[in-house]
Amino acid sequence: MKKSTFLFGLLATVMLLNGCGRNTNSEDTILTEQEAKQIALNKVPGATEEDIRKFKKDMDDSVWEYEGEIHYNGVEYEFEMNAYDGTILEWNEEPIKR
Fold first, then answer.
1. How does pLDDT run across 23-63, given as a tens digit for each residue?
2. Quick one: which of 6, 14, 82, 90 has the most CB atoms within 10 Å?
3. 3 state DSSP class of 27
4. C-alpha–C-alpha distance, residues 19 and 88, integer Å
């Protein structure tokens, strides 16, 4: 086997194992804030962007996440979401104490 053929095969294998060179933690693959907010709001029928009280992008264990709070109809909804695919990682609901 030629050295160049071997190196090409090795490079192709490494790229395949690494997702064809795509960096899944790249800023390019992160949902926009607007997309992430809409995913969270879809879980609270009737709530709008004005009901979002806290919202931020944060890195947790080398993974970007969005976290926030929605206050709607006397209930506080807290959430954490995977910033790459919108998967809800945590979701808590509790009545707002007045």
1. 445 556 999 999 999 999 999 999 999 999 999 999 999 99
2. 82
3. helix
4. 24
6 φ/ψ sector (left φ>0, alpha ψ -120 to 50, else beta): alpha
Domains of the chain by start residue, with CATH: 25-95 (3.10.450.40)
pLDDT at 98: 77
In this predicted model, what pLDDT tens digit does every residue of 70-84 receive, in sequence order? 999 999 999 999 999
Q: For residues 81 and 39, is the Cβ–Cβ distance under 8 A?
A: yes
Q: Using the 8-state DSSP alphabet, how is residue 49 labeled? A: G
Which run of H or E residues covers position 33?
helix 33-41
- C-alpha pair distances (Å), 37 with each of 14, 34, 73, 84: 36, 5, 18, 13
Q: What is the pTM of this model?
A: 0.70
Say which residues have a Cβ less than 8 Å from residue 10's Cβ, sequence separation at least 6: none
User: CA 55 to CA 66: how far, in whole Å?
Assistant: 7
